[in-house]
Amino acid sequence: MLDEEVITKAIVEEYMRTFLENTDVEAALGGAGPANLVAAKKLAEKGVKTAVYEEKLNVGGGMWGGGMMYPRIVVQEEAKRILKEFGINFSEYEKGYYVASSIESVARLASEAVKAGAEIFNLTKVEDVMVREDDHIAGVVLNWSAVEKANLHVDPLTVKADVVIDGTGHDAEICRVTQRKIPDADLQVRGEKPMWAEKGEKALMDTTKEVYPGLIVSGMAANAVSAGPRMGPVFGGMLLSGEKAAELALERIEEK
Amino acid sequence: MLDEEVITKAIVEEYMRTFLENTDVEAALGGAGPANLVAAKKLAEKGVKTAVYEEKLNVGGGMWGGGMMYPRIVVQEEAKRILKEFGINFSEYEKGYYVASSIESVARLASEAVKAGAEIFNLTKVEDVMVREDDHIAGVVLNWSAVEKANLHVDPLTVKADVVIDGTGHDAEICRVTQRKIPDADLQVRGEKPMWAEKGEKALMDTTKEVYPGLIVSGMAANAVSAGPRMGPVFGGMLLSGEKAAELALERIEEK
Amino acid sequence: MLDEEVITKAIVEEYMRTFLENTDVEAALGGAGPANLVAAKKLAEKGVKTAVYEEKLNVGGGMWGGGMMYPRIVVQEEAKRILKEFGINFSEYEKGYYVASSIESVARLASEAVKAGAEIFNLTKVEDVMVREDDHIAGVVLNWSAVEKANLHVDPLTVKADVVIDGTGHDAEICRVTQRKIPDADLQVRGEKPMWAEKGEKALMDTTKEVYPGLIVSGMAANAVSAGPRMGPVFGGMLLSGEKAAELALERIEEK
Amino acid sequence: MLDEEVITKAIVEEYMRTFLENTDVEAALGGAGPANLVAAKKLAEKGVKTAVYEEKLNVGGGMWGGGMMYPRIVVQEEAKRILKEFGINFSEYEKGYYVASSIESVARLASEAVKAGAEIFNLTKVEDVMVREDDHIAGVVLNWSAVEKANLHVDPLTVKADVVIDGTGHDAEICRVTQRKIPDADLQVRGEKPMWAEKGEKALMDTTKEVYPGLIVSGMAANAVSAGPRMGPVFGGMLLSGEKAAELALERIEEK
Amino acid sequence: MLDEEVITKAIVEEYMRTFLENTDVEAALGGAGPANLVAAKKLAEKGVKTAVYEEKLNVGGGMWGGGMMYPRIVVQEEAKRILKEFGINFSEYEKGYYVASSIESVARLASEAVKAGAEIFNLTKVEDVMVREDDHIAGVVLNWSAVEKANLHVDPLTVKADVVIDGTGHDAEICRVTQRKIPDADLQVRGEKPMWAEKGEKALMDTTKEVYPGLIVSGMAANAVSAGPRMGPVFGGMLLSGEKAAELALERIEEK
Amino acid sequence: MLDEEVITKAIVEEYMRTFLENTDVEAALGGAGPANLVAAKKLAEKGVKTAVYEEKLNVGGGMWGGGMMYPRIVVQEEAKRILKEFGINFSEYEKGYYVASSIESVARLASEAVKAGAEIFNLTKVEDVMVREDDHIAGVVLNWSAVEKANLHVDPLTVKADVVIDGTGHDAEICRVTQRKIPDADLQVRGEKPMWAEKGEKALMDTTKEVYPGLIVSGMAANAVSAGPRMGPVFGGMLLSGEKAAELALERIEEK
Amino acid sequence: MLDEEVITKAIVEEYMRTFLENTDVEAALGGAGPANLVAAKKLAEKGVKTAVYEEKLNVGGGMWGGGMMYPRIVVQEEAKRILKEFGINFSEYEKGYYVASSIESVARLASEAVKAGAEIFNLTKVEDVMVREDDHIAGVVLNWSAVEKANLHVDPLTVKADVVIDGTGHDAEICRVTQRKIPDADLQVRGEKPMWAEKGEKALMDTTKEVYPGLIVSGMAANAVSAGPRMGPVFGGMLLSGEKAAELALERIEEK
Amino acid sequence: MLDEEVITKAIVEEYMRTFLENTDVEAALGGAGPANLVAAKKLAEKGVKTAVYEEKLNVGGGMWGGGMMYPRIVVQEEAKRILKEFGINFSEYEKGYYVASSIESVARLASEAVKAGAEIFNLTKVEDVMVREDDHIAGVVLNWSAVEKANLHVDPLTVKADVVIDGTGHDAEICRVTQRKIPDADLQVRGEKPMWAEKGEKALMDTTKEVYPGLIVSGMAANAVSAGPRMGPVFGGMLLSGEKAAELALERIEEK
């Protein structure tokens, strides 16, 4: 006998328990694109209390569409091991160029991140940050993304965090709000440069960094902040950027 | 050294090879929601040439949002084995009620379907059907969903199929176009009934059926066609409907 | 010392506690316009477990704007006592015609309903009903109204109820969904007739009734269902309709 | 016998009488959010001729939605007395943190302001200011907000005022138009800072001030003008800001 | 010395005096296109208390644009005398075909109607009718047209009238609402027929008639109701239709 | 020396001369898609006074986009001679299947139609028809398509014609307006059937016919009117349909 | 017998003749609001070849709506004589304040301007200017306003003029395009100041001037360019500004 | 017998073969307006591997609409030879002024460019450029234009090119993205100047040039980049600009 009341209670209680357990986390990740999904898995498997906030219904960011709506992505040699780690199938197109399904890639990145213990909150947007002593980020300010889409005027809630990772893609939204609201911060979203895959992929290893105390930037947001070149549908750098962002976050958490 | 030309070629060639290999399939599935993802896995692992067409960028249909934006779903006893089969984590809320993450559920359903060999084409909409001898469906008529969204006037292409499964949710779009264009067909999308989880879940086993020669309906589309009750965020019936649709499709394919 | 984490927890816990206490209510009211606010107060002060669902951010329905954006309403002799009961100021314009501020009226109706113990859930829409044995309403199907406004595909949750009052105004939304999904029900939303204040006000006492087992209709929804005349910015009938709806609901609850 | 002509005349005459009695007021308040509703009550009960202009149909500003659509607000110790003064129910969540219904709070703030004698004009927007001698605000320029929403080109009307309070929230609209049109004024809307509830609440006591001769700013508009931190769904500071704005307005009115 | 307060008072008082003088009129005309402007002049110069309601800011209906945006209209022999009566310049293109400026035509029609004593209320829409004894129209239900455009929920006001003329063009809005709300009325808006200028112009003399007790239809609305042919940018029939509508209205008023 | 005044005069005079020379034509073609461009050429080269009206800026209808945005079309054996006649390049893909550039095809169809003497008016929509004696079409009712797009209320102009060809594609707009406005006409737009290229191409030879005295239908509009199957990006039938429509038109013109 | 072909020809020929007679005018006026209608009459009655371009269907600019949608305007003593000159009815509200119907005012301004010989082109927008020798305006660049509204990409045509008057209201569109395209011109649209009727009305006499060789500005555009105060629904200054603009234009034309 | 599968395969294979043959071209032209169509023909007939990318379905840019929607263009003496070269019909309006159909002109420009061997990709947008060594353009970054219109987040693909010609009209989109992303480049889109046909046509010969290593600008984009005057519907300069752009491109290609 299936009782709707139990279904309602099960869903609300389970979600709320999870939400309330996560009002104070170690790592708060904004955006659930490929870089942050890698970062989430890496952090969670190290035992870090990790929450990922995604404004859309679905995770995966810009990876679903492959190149020009053909759902295939390319990954280069350096990142092949990450495909393997997540169990993503691939084939070799030419020496050093591996092709995978963009759909399977997202699915595997997400399921492994959740399996590792990261908590993903979808339909939830990081609309602002918390600061303390005017010199470090202390958490994220959250709202249902439907509030903005439906043009409602509703106050947000907050979640404390030791470190925040901005993986919101080209817009680098968390960095932008920080730049706008803390003009004294030495943080400027400079926008990505023209396409140059080789250079862009390499740049990501440098642009993935802490850009303000407590705020790390990953994936395309990293190149957007530091004016690195655009790369197109080659995703090796994105995956490695997520890995590096996790390492930097871990350092910061351990400092505390 | 990373060469953009190779990336472009790799993606286009791989996609086109796949597309051209699938201009004549055994099973064409419209919609990549939970029911059709289960069906796709079941068919593919039996060796059926299976293509899934999803108009959105992402797969997963209405499962991502859980209940009222709380990303949790409930699955009842009968379908627990499917959660296990796909490797989806769950916890028991109360005897016979299992709670899982809606996000992980989608990710696992999709990755297992791809792993089993089903080919998923996203951003691709089944906008019409092919008929033959005026008495059976012979394939699907496809277009980029962006064509409709961008309000462009562009002709579609076709893919032949032995059987088509309409898993497009409440709208039952493939059934609707069939009903509208073949008024003589004894096929009427009657719309789902008010909420009654218990009854709705059971009805799904009856409403998941062949509704026109060569056209099977699965998931919420099944209840929408046959006026079964609505169920809300309990997904056991959806998963079992996918399984049944696969069985029916297999029978039809084998008949040929 | 003010801690955001405590603020977050206080709000989420208090809301969730209230929500979970109300997954099974005696009276579920759809719409928080003047009629249903009167009904809510009347029911709550009799000790009935009463929940009101309003899809907008604010309560008050069509009362705020008075007549042609001039924020004044008129109430006739018969309903003067209700103005007094709720503590709404008024002045006599002409014998038997009382004028009040539409803004103060809404504010008093709402504050008294809450004070009496009714629970108001705003931003929450009754999008469907629950039925049992195919012959009575057993509860309401709820969703965040922002889900619809933001064009998201998200499943609803449910709340059981002994009786439902449709006070959703001219659209009579709950009656409409019931009519559409249960065509056999002898329930038809016929639409209101042309303006005739005198006749419309009187009709409301007849049109406020149980229109399907477990479903009572109040306020403008009542005239919309039964084709009563429209009244314009005279609100006495609305207030009395709310009172009558409460009485009918009480009878039904007591029957159970 | 109910006569529509009397209803029409009652509403138009009552509104117009009120409007014409208020073409020259002592205090003109832009926005009917929580701060200005407190200010309106405080001013009106001191006998100040007070008019409040609200562009929406409903009053209450951003308070209705509580935090993330959960209709609860938090008020801290210092402002508990204002909850009591307005008759708003609350419960103690933790020492010094009081939780109230956001819906009841708005309703009580509004009904008490009206009861005290403040005149609220809804659907009416302060779209500009009047200046005199190029060095002080002399009144407000009003239009139906529907004119702007319906994209019509219609001239406004004016109301003289000794003092204007900008309580239009984050946008600080009256301050913005003053800044734009009087560039020499030492008035700059700097935008609010990141979330820091403790500091933001305290800042409000400083940022609530006269920012240009005859123009006082209250509530979130005050922090928006002076770059105070954002606070989220804790409303104690808002209520106290309204109280302070009323005191400053009173001083200015008495000077004249 | 120019005082804004006097300007405000002058405008509000003059409008309100006029509005209140017109809560009970003899003839209420919906739409201020060419036919109703002629009707208004004819009625007003006979001493009939005449009010015209136009939902747009400007009067003139579909006459401004001439034919295909070339601002010229054609009037045939029979209506030449009306051009003269209103002082509209014209030239003879060919025997029996007179060409005038569409802009000057509207301007003259409107200024002469006002000069004759008709009261024009623009931005005001007839959204419904008043009925009495279920068998005759007793007045109009008015709202600011901006209310509908701005998607607000605001109640209307009413004006009593002995006779109503629907001159709302192709849509025949007043007839439509009457048809919808009084299905028993023998009134059906059948829509205009294909273009046939000769026949359409003649038909207008027959289709301009009382279609329900107290409701006369004029101009394109007349052909729309009675399925007369469309005429294009020849306006003689429109002007004559207005004249006839005035005569019919006068008869009805005199009967009372 | 280049003088703007001469440029202005040259363009206006040349267009107007052409327009005025074409207020009475032999054949008026609605829509400038592939079928009507073939028809226009065929008619014009026989000396028929032919005007084509296209509502878009560009001609070519649905041919530009090829199949699924890949700008290639297929033409079968029977229509190869038309490709040759218009000078369109093609290659043989497989026996009986010829592939051409959709872009070059449109360009050649249009340039040859103009060269043959057909007059194309773009941005001009056939919004209605003229009828005479209630039993035959006598011409077209034209308006700038920008009038509709810009939501303006502007009267149309007319052009007389012995025969009208509706080549407006799937919508069959001219047939629809005729059906709606002349319900007695035995003309019903039934909508196209599901995809079946072979059958659809053949059906076109039957469905291209006179559907009402003076009204011939061509191209996809023909299958839409007579419920012929859809064909997709194979265009042989379209070209042959244009040819047949021209022959039928010629017969009708010669009868007169 | 009424022949549509004659109607079509009459309208097209008359318009085109007028258009071609006006490809080289003495005064080109952008915008047909109250100031430019006065200017047009004044110029035309002096025998100046005058063309007025209005982008809307209707003339009258912001005058139709009176103040806050109450269709009444106020005119002060100094401009009373212009009301009389145009034959506009008015009543004295208070010494020196005259009230007129905004609707009659527009109608009279337009009909007198046309009667005096000014040619008004509606639906036509001045989208740019012509310059010569980089130091004076030599004409206007025109397009159908529907082109912009319908988002079409269509080239404009030109009309030569000795002088151009920008009477496009608050936006001062012709001045803005001149400022943007000729940055060296000492022309800056500074925007109007806050409301101060007395000062604004007086300022208009100074701000109505030649702002660039060959470009005069009138009405609200004049105050918008020179940062004069806003005035609201008092229109005396507007009428006098039109008169002055005409005088300045006359001087410039006579210089040539 | 017509087989849909063959049609699908023919279109996909032919397009893909062409696309893959063009992942490395000599000249990549952005925009298929008149200038670039001339350039494409000139380059292709010299044997240069030339690809043209057009974001719309149709080619022809702003030429279709002639002047103010009258589909005629003017060409002056100097460019008459190009009309002849493309086989476009024209007539002499006045000495040195030739008038042609805008529709035929586009059709001939396109068909001749394709015939010469240029490959046109429609529905494809150049959204960015590739750079190398930070000092020259190395190719284009392409996406389906429907991706942007449908608001999808999908990665682009790339095509290498020796030289890129920006012929995207007034917006000069490729120059703008280059300017924004390479701020150090001495490249600034300055916007076109007011209308001066004579001067603008001459300027085009100077403004058509290489503006950044590997990036040439043609047509209206050339005047937009270098602040040349606007010309209106005279197209001689556009055609000559295309010719010159081809010559410059050829030089650059030969240098390599």
From TrEMBL, chains A, B, C, D, E, F, G, H:
GO terms for molecular function: iron ion binding; pentosyltransferase activity. Keywords: Iron, Metal-binding, NAD, Thiamine biosynthesis, Transferase. NAD(+) binds at A35, E54, E55, G62, V126, H153, V154, D155, M220. Pathway: Cofactor biosynthesis; thiamine diphosphate biosynthesis. NCBIfam families: sulfide-dependent adenosine diphosphate thiazole synthase. Homooctamer; tetramer of dimers. This is Thiamine thiazole synthase. It comes from candidate division MSBL1 archaeon SCGC-AAA259E19.
